[in-house]
Each structure stands twice: as structure tokens, then as C-alpha cells.
Amino acid sequence: GIQVEQSPPDLILQEGANSTLRCNFSDSVNNLQWFHQNPWGQLINLFYIPSGTKQNGRLSATTVATERYSLLYISSSQTTDSGVYFCAVYSGGGADGLTFGKGTHLIIQP
Amino acid sequence: DSGVTQTPKHLITATGQRVTLRCSPRSGDLSVYWYQQSLDQGLQFLIQYYNGEERAKGNILERFSAQQFPDLHSELNLSSLELGDSALYFCASSVGQGKGAYGYTFGSGTRLTVV
Asked: At CB < 8 Å, which residues of chain A contact B?
């Protein structure tokens, strides 16, 4: 099956810093999403971005499907951005679930 | 509130027992998915239903089964439980399915502890 690799696995930053999280995938995809799992365990959908660039406030994402990677940018980090960020893809031809990467654990220190 | 409701939030049970987890999808979503999150395996897709019909199976054990009812709520049944089944079980729903599954929304999860 498709492989999803995320980097870095861990990231510790000071409040106000910017960060870039990367997701590489081993095969072509037609559905890619980014999620944030907060410290209470809730998974929140950030972006549906199979290709192109999207922005939502301090967060933006870019997917270059032809080169099999996606990037999530977080600007002016806040402590509430802490948690685990997951990239998830769908590559199958029929109905199927998402394949998740192992995530990037982000800690924003005040 | 994400709009996806899962009950119960916590469940503690003994090995060999059977439990049922319940999920109500977000209003209007026809696709329901079940995922398992554990420390060693990460987030894994278990099974998907679309408008009452099973559409895809992932890494779901034979001891586990699920169904989706006419009102679109879904139940995940876990039987002959083992210590290794302890995990966080998520339900999610989406508009559309497959490559068109956008608006993916997760419930708050059921934390299952098998003792």
C-alpha cells in the first residue's frame, strides 16, 4: 500500500516562531488532508488539499502532487498550536479510508 | 462539537468480553468510517460504510464487526477482547467518499481499556 512519511517527527518552538511540516507519499494520490490532534485527543480537519495551495488564517498548505509531497506552514505560532499534525492520503480507485502518516509532534513553548 | 457523536467516551472491560461503540455522523454525511489509534500502530483505517452499505475494509480483525443503520448511525462491535485491543477508537464522517471524501470530521473518540 501507499507509504506516508512525515518530518520532522518532533518539533519544539518558541511562541511566535514559524514552522514547516512536510509529508511525502510514495504513490500518486487524489485526496490529501491535514489534521491536528490537540492535547485532548480531538482530531480536527485543517485542509483538504489534493493539489495546489490553500490558506486559513495563520495556517497554509501546499501540495505538489507530481512530486509527491505536501507542506503545512504555521506562522506566528501560539501555544494552542501544540499537538500532533497528521497528513493523510487516499490513493485507491474505490471507496476506501485514509492512510495516515505517523505525525509531527509540535510543542510551542510560551 | 464536531457534529460527530461517539459514545461512550471511556470504556474499561476485561479480556474475553464484548463491547459496542456507537457513532452518529454529522448531519447530511452518508459516509461513516471507523479508525483505531494505538501507540504502536498509529491511526489505522478499520472499515467504511456508505448509506447503510459496507464499502471498504482496512485492517479490521475478524473479531471486530460493524454496521450502519437506516438512520445512518453506526456501531462497532469488538468481541473476544485482548489486552492489545486497548486503543482510542474514532468514528469519522464525510461528504462523499473515496477521492471525493472532503469535509472529513472526526468524533471525540472512545478510549477502550482492556484489563
From this structure: 30-31, 33, 35, 41-45, 48, 50, 86, 88, 90, 92, 94-103
Cβ contact (<8 Å) for A97 and B58? yes
Residue A94 has pLDDT above 80, yes or no: no
pLDDT at B104: 86
> Using an 8 Å Cβ cutoff, are B6 and B21 in contact?
yes
Record: contact A42-B56, CB cut-off 8 A: no
Element (H, E) at A50: none
How far apart CA A25 and CA A31 sit, in angstroms, is: 12
At B70-106, the pLDDT tens digits run: 999 999 999 999 999 999 999 999 987 766 677 789 9
